[in-house]
Amino acid sequence: MLTPSKLLPFLFLSMAFLVPGASGASDTPAAPAAQPEVIDGVAAVVNGDVITFSQVQEVSGPRERTLREQSTGVELVEKIKEARLAALNDLIDRQLILQEFKKKKFTIPEYVIDDQMQNIIREEFAGDRQAFLRTLNAQGYSIDKFREIQRDKVIVGAMRQGNVKGTFSTTPQQVQAYYEANKPEFATPEQLKLRMIVLNADPLDANSGDSTRKMAEEIRDKVKGGADFATMAKTYSMDGTAESGGDWGMIDRKTLNQQLTDVAFSLSPGQVSQVVQIGDSFYILYCESKKTSSFIPLPEVRDGIQKKLEEVQRQKATQKWIDSLREKAYIKIY
């Protein structure tokens, strides 16, 4: 489905777009609006505004599709429940923010929405407005409805930014502490530069296995005797790396299957393996060089850690503001 999150991947707006309305009406909260007609069931009510089950499923849909590929049975059911609850809470927060926008009598210039629409057409549809309109129509959106969705996204983004006060900073001690507590995050895996020769026996020939192994052993003996491994690979190997001399580049322990991985990482630089048989295939591995596992030095990741910690502070401040909206709201979840 054509979703706003896909069509508007990033949003950097400030509260400068939010202009207090000129109305002289009182700041007293208005009475709850009349309940709209609901055609698919009520998931929650937020100060009189309804959130429907279909809205929840639309938000949680992408996550649910991923979960169905990863889990089954009771585990899948529980994870889908969690995904839908998270989607519902996101929709509740969104509705509270939109209501706060209206309560403060802010307005947003139409050119801001126009710019967002033009950005979507330019970036997602290469400037082809007709293709954009056809896609909207195919996904059941009118242009007015999609514009309304974009307006709400702009408002929510601007309100989140504008209501987080102050600056966020971290100390060198905090950066150091994060680095030490999360060392695995900065680990570089053990790697080796690998070349490999692959010979495939004919599964329909009962004698092919023996003759192919014999050939593999002869090739290995030549390499042990000083023959260039890359040249031998170009001459004899039957896999896709033959033209490059059997070059697999730098590999880690996730590149090959477990049996070949164990063999490869048992080799020292300059060492050739024994012939390894897996099914009808015979492998000869050669380690050119090795790189041990290590950690990226702190100076190289300091800026990234600092930005990450500052973002965590910003998220906490945003959540504190949203929690304050929840405390003053009437929220009923069904």
Can you describe what's shown?
The model is unreliable at 1-38 (pLDDT under 50). The protein has 334 residues and is of the alpha+beta class. It has 11 helices and 11 strands. It is elongated. It has helices at 4-7, 53-70, 73-103, 110-124, 129-138, 143-162, 172-181, 208-224, 229-236, 258-265, 298-327; strands at residues 19-20, 42-46, 49-52, 106-107, 187-188, 191-200, 247-251, 276-278, 281-291, 294-295, 331-333.
CATH arch. level architecture of the largest domain: Orthogonal Bundle
Strand content: 5-15%
- SSE pattern, N- to C-terminal: HEEEHHEHHHHEEHHEHEEEHE
Strand sequence of the main sheet, in spatial order? 7-6-9-8
The helix content is 40-55%
Strand count, sense and barrel status of the largest sheet are:
4 strands, antiparallel
Count of DSSP E strands? 11
Could you name the CATH topology of the largest domain?
Triger factor/SurA peptide-binding fold
Report Rg: 30 Å
3D shape: elongated
Write down the domain tally. 2
User: pLDDT under 50 segments (min length 5)?
Assistant: 1-38
CATH C-level label of the largest domain: Mainly Alpha
Number of helices: 11
The residue-averaged pLDDT reads 88
Distance between the termini: 26 Å
Please identify which CATH superfamily of the largest domain we are dealing with: Porin chaperone SurA, peptide-binding domain
* Oligomer classification: single chain
Structural class: alpha+beta
